[in-house]
């Protein structure tokens, strides 16, 4: 059996000391660029991979980050997780995912303990998991919370939900609609609350119709959409996500309503293939994930970070509105 490549082999090929190889492997800045390039070239030529366990003993870090999630069934969570894994890999960090059993602080504490047992350096809480994680008390490691209000023990990160919603409503009003109805997300959701706030602020002095609240699914959008389709006064609807907008579009089509403009939120992969193609507010999931990882690694390293970061959204115009 061929022996594994060692740091000494890399040092010999690169013409440096073993300590220099260790510094390069651990990301130390105490190596000049030319030497670092030579060591990295030797690593690549020999197929050398640093031993994570040994490195963790030396540095006190496992180069593993946790992700806390309530469900992987939603489009937003799935896209965020995919992007976090890619961003983590770009920093040579592994990602460990733990799902919360329910929405209680007890479930969050159990999930945090699980990540602690696996020795993560820090964690990112995604969307629906965030309220439970914040209610669980201080985390035992650095924590970035996506879609959360800033807190003493967490770094808050969010898309510009309110600004994106306001842009959607302003677009509909500019098209001549006297008001805009709202198919809202579930009560207690940070994203849903922020999108509803943006809707209300954009309506300004106009009377705001009572929102109909769904649960992010296309099924709930179809159910509430049937009620909206039955009201002749409804001519424009802002749906809090694209999946509910999909159900709404089906309800409108079934009712023969071709006079209702619809705008969604998220810009899911299939939004351009809805019937009609969906005008929507795009979240930049890649930027969210990359920022979450950057903020977390900065906090792990002890660098100062902003308590709250907002990632811009943009309105994508298609045929539905």
Detailed description of the structure:
The N and C termini lie far apart (65 Å). The chain is of the alpha/beta class and 321 residues long. Helix 10 crosses helix 11 (242-254). It has helices spanning 7-14, 18-25, 33-46, 52-59, 75-90, 105-117, 130-135, 161-174, 190-203, 218-229, 242-254, 285-300, and strands at 64-69, 94-99, 122-125, 143-146, 155-159, 181-184, 212-213, 236-239, 261-266, 279-282, 308-311, 314-316. Helix 9 (190-203) links the parallel strand 6 and strand 7. 44% of the residues lie in helices and 16% in strands. The protein folds into 3 domains: 7-59, Orthogonal Bundle (434 Repressor (Amino-terminal Domain)); 64-159 and 285-310, Rossmann fold (3-Layer(aba) Sandwich), CATH 3.40.50.2300; 161-283, Response regulator (Rossmann fold, 3-Layer(aba) Sandwich), CATH 3.40.50.2300. The strands form 2 sheets. Strands 2-1-3-4-5-11 form a 6-stranded parallel sheet, with helices on both faces. 44% of the residues are buried.
Strand content: 15-25%
Order of helices and strands: HHHHEHEHEHEEHEHEHEHEEHEE
Total number of beta strands: 12
Task: Using the 3D structure, state the CATH architecture of the largest domain.
Answer: 3-Layer(aba) Sandwich
Shape: elongated
Largest sheet, described in full? 6 strands, parallel
Let me know the CATH homologous superfamily of the largest domain. Answer: Response regulator
What share of residues is helical?
40-55%
Q: How many discrete structural domains?
A: 3
Show unreliable segments. none
What is the count of helical runs?
12
Arrangement of strands in the largest sheet:
2-1-3-4-5-11
Supply the CATH class of the largest domain: Alpha Beta
Which radius of gyration do the C-alpha atoms yield? 24 Å
What is the structural class? alpha/beta
Oligomer: single chain
């Amino acid at each position: 059996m061929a022996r594994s490549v060692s740091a000494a082999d890399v040092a010999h090929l690169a013409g440096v000391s073993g300590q220099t190889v260790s510094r390069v492997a651990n990301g130390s800045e105490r190596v000049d660029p030319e030497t670092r390039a030579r060591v990295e070239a030797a690593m690549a030529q020999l197929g050398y991979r640093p031993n994570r366990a040994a490195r963790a003993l030396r540095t006190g870090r496992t180069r593993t980050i946790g992700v806390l999630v309530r469900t992987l069934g939603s489009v937003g969570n799935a896209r965020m997780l995919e992007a976090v894994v890619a961003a983590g890999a770009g920093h040579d960090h592994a990602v460990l995912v733990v799902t919360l059993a329910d929405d209680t602080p007890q479930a969050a504490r159990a999930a945090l303990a699980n990540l602690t047992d696996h020795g993560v350096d820090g964690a990112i809480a995604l969307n629906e998991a965030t309220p439970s994680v914040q209610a669980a008390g201080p985390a035992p490691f650095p924590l970035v919370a996506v879609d959360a209000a800033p807190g003493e023990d967490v770094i808050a990160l969010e898309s510009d939900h309110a600004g994106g919603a306001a842009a959607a409503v302003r677009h509909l009003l500019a098209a001549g609609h006297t008001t805009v109805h709202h198919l809202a997300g579930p009560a207690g959701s940070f994203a849903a609350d922020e999108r509803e706030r943006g809707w209300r602020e954009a309506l300004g002095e106009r009377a705001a119709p009572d929102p109909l609240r769904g649960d992010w699914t296309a099924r709930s959008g179809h159910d509430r959409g049937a009620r909206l389709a039955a009201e002749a006064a409804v001519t424009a609807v802002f749906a809090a996500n694209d999946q509910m907008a999909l159900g709404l579009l089906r309800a409108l089509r079934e009712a023969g309503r071709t006079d209702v403009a619809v705008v969604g939120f998220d810009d899911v992969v299939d939004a351009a293939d809805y019937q009609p193609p969906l005008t929507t507010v795009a979240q930049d999931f890649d930027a969210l994930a990359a920022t979450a990882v950057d903020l977390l690694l900065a906090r792990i390293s002890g660098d100062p970070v902003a308590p709250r970061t907002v990632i811009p959204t943009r309105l994508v115009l298609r045929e539905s509105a």
